[in-house]
Amino acid sequence: MTPSDNFDDLRDLYQEVILDHGRRPRHAERLTEFDATAKGDNPMCGDRVQVWVKFGSGTVSRVGFEARGCAISVASADLMAETVQHRTKADTRALFESFREMARTGICPACDARLDEAIERLKPLAGVHEYPSRVKCATLPWHALIAALDGAKEASSE
Amino acid sequence: MTKPATFDVERIRQDFPILTQKIRGKDLVFLDSAASAQKPRVVIDAMVRAMETQYANIHRGLHWMSERTTEAYEEARDAAAALMNASGRSEIVFTHNSTEAINLMAHSYGRGVMKRGQAVVISGMEHHSNIVPWQLLRDSHGIELRVAPVTDAGELDMEAYEALFADGKVGLVAITHMSNVLGSVVPAERVVKIAHANGAKVMFDGSQAIVHRKVDVRALDCDFYAWTGHKLYGPTGIGVLWGRRELLERMPPFMGGGDMISSVTYEQSTWATVPHKFEAGTPAILEGIGLKAAIDYVQAIGFDAMAAHEAALTEHALARLGQIDGVHIVGRAQDRGGVISFTLDKAHSHDVATLLDRQGIAVRAGHHCAEPLMRRFNLDSTARASFGIYTTHAEIDALADGLIRVREFFT
Ligand SMILES: Cc1ncc(COP(=O)(O)O)c(C=O)c1O
Which residue of A has its CA nearest to B24? Predict the structure, then answer.
């Protein structure tokens, strides 16, 4: 194999955005000031994530996380933290539902049009639907975030 | 190592219909045989032929179909006995897999023969199926569970193993013959000698070893040996527990039901003789017939030839993978079979497996049902390539080239 090798066959799931956020996550930090935190655990593959959330008035003002796992789960956690920032809790929950649908099926017909721009940002992860064993990697950080919103310590697995 | 002239991998590949399948337009490179092996045509045909021409429930009909089917099923026992050099069919208990065989041991030998306060020794490189049944026994029956550690090279620490017997409490050693993660083969004869010198019996989990070498239970001098048919090119749903007859006779039944009794009244039932005492209900009849075909198939090829082929593949794979920057092979046992676990810097093993899969290469990634062993090596997971009789040198080259691409993709 030469360095000029083209990686087209590897890119459908691992798009540049995912590789980039997987390699250099922007929000991978334990917040020193936070209002809620929860963990997510995927015992099947050993992925583990913890999220810390700071609330504003009715909003998620900031999310930080620590993830131990594959590029998909780290990138998903990072894109999630970026996307939900400054959104209302209700919109955050709606985004979770949309994202979960997208990760499972690749599409999201019932998605809220108001959230189009946010969903667009999460779309690179939709390719995971072709890999049933990897869907959980992408949704795990979201489960932890929703657990934190619910005041739970631990995400219940699907 | 050179291959014996009789072993022709290209001819063997023609025996496995599935190997002609394409994955996303690419040739299937199947390097996950340690999880479950592919099936040769003779196994598929034997099961289909039984269903089409000669099938009925066994041990209970007085008609021709039942008698013929019973005979075929019992011949599978003979084949399993011959495979392991056991003394005969009465020592071969059919189970559904290794897991059930080990649970049978924990139940019937652990609860039925062992005494409260005795200890069971396992090793630090067991599959969960040879850990959890003993934990259940520990918690329900007051049996202590001891773990013989593994060295950094991934070998059984024999000094530490021997030290576990010092207080004379060990009644049973239940230990893997070959690790499904590291490929390490334990020095089985020494394991047995030390255990016997201290009055303990030995059960091997031979799920992996049975595939890779000639297992001779009399030469090993062990007391029990468990394995599973689907890894030996046979069907799923059938496994074997071999035990010394006098020990099997002392053990109470595992499950109750039809086939395992001699007579039943409401006051009391009496048990069938071994091995039937341990086989309640209609067994995996077709799977037994398929297993016999698989055993006949590997016996015809010969374990010496298969082992030589695998040793050459393993040597080639260790050399190729060892040359790739950023690849770390986990476990460096001297005596090993065709299973190699590795990690890649900068890429998680799940990403490695998915990106290899994109190239048509099937490997396994995760903790391989051996979480305590992963922890021992400070790992969450590894990728694992494992070989079968149909694996070729070219497939190993494909794995190495594929890994180089994955590494470049991630940097
Ligand atoms: C060493 C070892 N023990 C036990 C098992 C369990 O085998 P089965 O799932 O067929 O019961 C396996 C296979 O997964 C194995 O590799």
Answer: A9
Percent of chain B scoring above 90 in pLDDT = 90
Return the best residue to mutate from B33, B95, B98, B181 for the ligand 1 pocket (most ligand atoms within 8 A of CB): B98
The answer as to whether B3 is a domain residue is no
Query: B186 CA distance to ligand 1 centroid (A)?
Result: 16
Q: Which two tokens stand for residue B361?
A: 């290469």
Measured from the Cα of B179, ligand 1's closest atom is 1
pLDDT confidence tier of residue A158, bands split at 50, 70 and 90: low
pTM given for the model: 0.93
Residue B2 belongs to a domain: no
Cβ distance A10 to B405 less than 8 Å, yes or no, reads yes
The ipTM estimated for the assembled molecules is 0.87
User: Is A72 in the B-facing interface, judged by CB distances under 8 Å?
Assistant: yes
Pair B21, B124 in one domain: no
Read off the pLDDT of residues B79-130 as tens digits, 9 standing for 90 and up: 999 999 999 999 999 999 999 999 999 999 999 999 999 999 999 999 999 9
For B40-90, write each residue's pLDDT tens digit. Answer: 999 999 999 999 999 999 987 789 899 999 999 999 999 999 999 999 999
Name the pLDDT band for A111 (thresholds 50, 70, 90): confident
The Å distance, Cα B138 to ligand 1 centre, comes to 21
Residue B293 is assigned to a structural domain of this protein: yes
Residue B137 to residue B135: CA distance in whole angstroms: 5
- For residue A12, list chain B residues with Cβ-Cβ distance below 8 A: 358
Mutate to test the interface with A, among B23, B350, B405 (most CBs of A within 10 A): B350
Q: In this predicted model, what pLDDT tens digit does every residue of B313-336 receive, in sequence order?
A: 999 999 999 999 999 999 999 999
Count of structural domains within chain B: 2
- For ligand 1, say whether the CB of B95 is within 6 Å of any of its atoms: no
Choose the final residue of a domain: B270, B299, B328.
Answer: B299
Give the domain range for residue B74.
45-299
Q: What residue in A sits closest to B375 (Cα-Cα)?
A: A46
Q: How far is B12 from chain A (nearest CA, A)?
A: 29
d(CA B180, CA B225): 16
Whether residues A1 and B401 touch (CB distance < 8 A) is answered with: yes
Beta bridge partners of A66: A50
Residues B110 and B196 in one domain: yes
Picking from B282, B299, B316, the residue at the C-terminal end of a domain is: B299
